[in-house]
Amino acid sequence: MPTLRAAPAEAGFKAGLKPRIRLDPFIFIYAAAGAYVAAFLVLPVGRILAETTLALAEAETPLEPGFGEYIARITWNSVFVAGSTALLSVGLGIPLAFFTVKVATPGRGLFRVLLALPLITPPFISAFATILLLGRTGVITQLLGRVGLPEVYIYGPAGLILTHVLHFTPLAYLTVAAGLQVVPAAVEEAAASLGSGTARTLTRVVLPYIRPRVLMAAVLVFLASFGDVGAPLLLAGNFRVLPLETYTAFNSFQVDRRVSLVLASWSIILAFLVLLIVKRLMARTQVSHTFTTRTFVHRDRPLRWLGLGFCLTVTGVLFLPYVVTVISSFGTVWTTGLLPAAFTLRNYQFILTNFHGIKNSLILSAVATPLCVGLAFGLGKLFREYGARAGWLDYLVLLPFVIPGVVIGIGLVKSYPGFQPLGFPLLLPIAYSVRRLPYAVRVVTAGYSRVDRTLEEASLGLGASPWRTFWRVTWPQLMPTLAATSVMAFIRIITELGSTLIILPPGWRTATVAIFYYAAEGFIGRASAISVVLIGLVALGSALANLDYGRLLGRPRARP
Amino acid sequence: MGLTRRRFLQLLALGAAGTFSACAPAGAPASPGTVRPAREFSGKLVIYSSIFADGAEALKKGFEQTHPKATVEFINPGGTEVILKRLDAERAKPQADLMHSGFSLEYREAKKLGLIEPADPREVMGDLPEALDLGGTKIPLKDKDNYFFVWGIQFGGIEVNTERLKTLNLPRPESLQDLTKPIYKGHIIFMKPQNSSTAFTNVLYTYHALGNDDAKFKEFWDKLNANIAFYTEKSATLYTLMAKGEAAIGIAGSRAVYRDQQEGYPVDLIYPADGSVVLDNSMALVKGAPNRELAVEFMRWHLAREGQEAIAPILYTPVRPGIKMPRPEVTLEFALKNIPKVIVPDPEVADRKRDEILRMFDAYTQGRSR
Lengths: 560, 370
Hints:
The complex is a heterodimer.
Chain A lengths: L3 E3 L4 H4 L6 E3 L3 H32 L8 H36 L5 H7 L8 H12 L4 H8 L10 H24 L4 H9 L4 H12 L1 H17 L2 H6 L6 H10 L5 H29 L15 H29 L16 H8 L2 H31 L4 H7 L1 H4 L2 H11 L11 H9 L1 H13 L3 H9 L4 H29 L3 H6 L7 H10 L3 H23 L2 H4 L8
Antiparallel strand pairs in A: 1-2
Helix pairs in contact in A: 2-13, 2-16, 2-19, 3-7, 3-10, 3-14, 5-7, 5-14, 7-10, 7-14, 8-9, 10-13, 12-13, 14-26, 15-26, 16-20, 16-21, 16-23, 16-25, 21-23, 22-23, 23-26, 25-26
Chain B lengths: L4 H19 L19 E7 L3 H14 L3 E6 L4 H10 L8 E6 H9 L3 E2 L3 H5 L5 E4 L2 E4 L8 E13 H7 L19 E4 L5 H13 L4 H14 E5 L2 H10 L4 E5 H10 L3 E4 L5 E11 L5 H12 L1 H7 L5 E2 L13 H7 L3 E2 L3 H21 L3
Parallel strand pairs in B: 1-2, 1-3, 8-9, 8-10, 12-14
Antiparallel strand pairs in B: 3-12, 4-12, 5-6, 7-10, 7-11, 7-12, 7-13
């Protein structure tokens, strides 16, 4: 990491003055962020990989014949599922974002909140909802059967892709929507004044403008799907995917330790390759932004109603799993009927007497979110200022996307045994902050890309210090990113399971762990009820975070 | 009211017994059949267990009632295999006192890995015999080197979803051999023995059921594998899918099936004519346990009447005879009467055949990965 940097004002060179070398004032922030990543990501994961490499080196027998073919097959399977999911999610996310950002669709504020909800649900609950809907005895399967249509077989790629699309489309939507919010109105107004219609402006002007965002949405969904273990645990059937095989190889004492190393290393290499390709593509399609607060909003009546119809349909489909989760939360057992055998409130009564899981989740997430967001802002600024020279760190930050949480958990416990300062299980929030860092860094990097450099240069040129420039010029432009990153990080943190299972200290069982226990033990109603309460609480928090307090307090709002 | 001579002598005897008890050395073993512990224990006991949450709650409540100054924390990291991983990761500074649940074959692995340590069987087992006699079949209740102790048992069998069988118009299978019939093709699910020790124990039992004959064993599994729709990663997933009716037949343990049945799911357990395996739920002291004394007391309590009564409502078959059970199907007496043949896994055979069995299932599961 560079430590010294030439003073930003190059004017001195031109005037023939002796160049001044001064310390970058943010160096301590970069160093702290780097040290955090080194201590809590690189060291624990490196330790696990080193131990297993040693086992590989010391092994006297070769791996089973056919292992190469097996790894090629599961790699293709994973790429196929993740690629299909990314394609479909982005395909749905773009029009959703268009209708809720660029069109005055009725209720678009509500759609924005609703569309973030699926991300709060742990993926294995989404997978179970897929079974409730489309399993051999699922509601839709039964309805199809009544009209003479055959069963849909969900134990394999179809079930995985469907679950991932329903679960990760909001991720694509949020990323694309954030991009659309900064398309300058002038660009679209110019197109319109030259006679371009809405569809043409969208495809020829707006989409090319936000192409890096679309690519980023695709890569986020690809990696989230690629690294997911929850849905394959229930739905993979005979269709083996890389993350599930890595997860089970690491968990089992009966599997050759070398297998887990090979699978984990291969996952990391693949993720790096994907990021490399996407970064190249993004660099080629990057558009220089001109800072603007005003965006163009279509107000034509037919388009608004089309938007409403589209958003209602897609949101309805995305919400089907959550509808069955809510029904299940009020049910006793749900087997082969269209509804549970009976309805009850006992699952919610259970939560009232066992609220500590939800409380623990909120406390731990509240500690982990600032850690994660702070780290992301530090790293985001580093990547912005040092570009390619800090690029390798960007790749490193990507590791938690593809390494199962269990592996990170084991690495942390081995590296910091019994680490509980003042009796607080700090290792858990640390694990969460590291696990969810890739999401936060990607959102923050996008946020920094929207900051207008000319304003910063003007501030520096007028004699303001780099610190003052940051706080008075850069930071206000980053405020929307701060809110978006915090909400995104909190949502992803509260659903983290893999590392929790390994680190969880006594008395700190989280809501996600409780959901996992009860879902695994067949108490689906109880697991659903905890999910519903969790979703409700996080949705409420997100809505509060997005409230326009200025408007509520009666201050006039700047018209977009 | 005057004190009679007889009443006075009774009180004197009680007082003497109390004084004697108070003067007994600390930690002296009490008879596990008795209700009161030898002395009060305090502190926090951390147990890594794959027992389901309600079971953990019942044990916690029971022990804390007996020892009001002690607190128990159960942590389930997601299965017995993950418990071993976690214990291994914490080897430098153990956080848990007790490893609990999972079968004895897994405890043999923990012993080999140096993750658990022995305890004095006189302290832990009291008056319990070293093995249960089930109609001539001996079920060991402890490790020969005292590393682990069995607190509850279940029996393996064929789980069926009765509604699914009816929908598919399939007959109830009566034996393991029935499962290899072509009519069941695509209707059976099983767990991966590479990840699930329940599955491994079940596979080993089929080896025993087939007379430890390698050729018959291979032929049987080749046929059964062809009928299996898919392998689940964990045993819990199998029970969940079976209860929901996603498959008609599974190979499972009795407790989960009876628990699901009690919840109202249309499932049933068939004890195969060719034998049922004993699944022995065990417990062991974690090596370097921070609160060893309390952990030993928990083990003693668990095998005493109170601890055995605590697991009765959650449908584990207690190892102590005479415990009143909520359902007759989970009593030893029922097992004795209704299970055609009880098979106890042979740990020596397990050690000898483990690699071979796992390789065989690698071929089955990897071979079907599309």
